[in-house]
Amino acid sequence: MFAVILFDSGIWKALSFAIMVVGIVAVGLKNFIKPHAENGSQFECMNCRYIYNPKVGNEVAGIKPHTEFDDLPEDWTCPVCGKKKNNFKLKEDK
Question: What distance in Å separates the CA atoms of residue 88 and residue 41, rounded to the nearest whole number?
């Protein structure tokens, strides 16, 4: 497409098109890249591998969506194996 615009319309329109394409790709790519450590980090139970996702919460235990792991009550336990909150670690992306 760049070559067609270059030969038909000139260098400036072709460069404008290329910059627009790069900008659109950059904006679209931003939605697919997950920041490594941000709010909304997932924590994994070291016993049963249950993953607490703050975006989902845990409605059964009365934990609303968007509740960060650090904001969970101290007596909160894993809904799968029953281990305490201190048995969880930050899940690292692989």
Answer: 12
Residue 83 scores a pLDDT above 50: yes
Task: State how far the Cα of 55 lies from the Cα of 61, in Å rounded to an integer.
Answer: 15
- Taking domain 43-90, whether its CATH number is 2.20.28.10 is answered by yes
List, in sequence order, every residue forming a beta bridge with 45; answer none if it has no partner: 88
* pLDDT confidence tier of residue 20, bands split at 50, 70 and 90: very high
pLDDT band at 87 (very low <50, low <70, confident <90, very high): very high
* 89 class by beta-carbon count within 10 Å (0-12 exposed, 13-18 middle, 19+ buried): exposed
Q: What residue segments make up the domains of the chain, in order of their start?
A: 1-33, 43-90
Check residue 59 and report its DSSP letter.
G
Residue 24 in this model has a pLDDT that exceeds 70 = yes
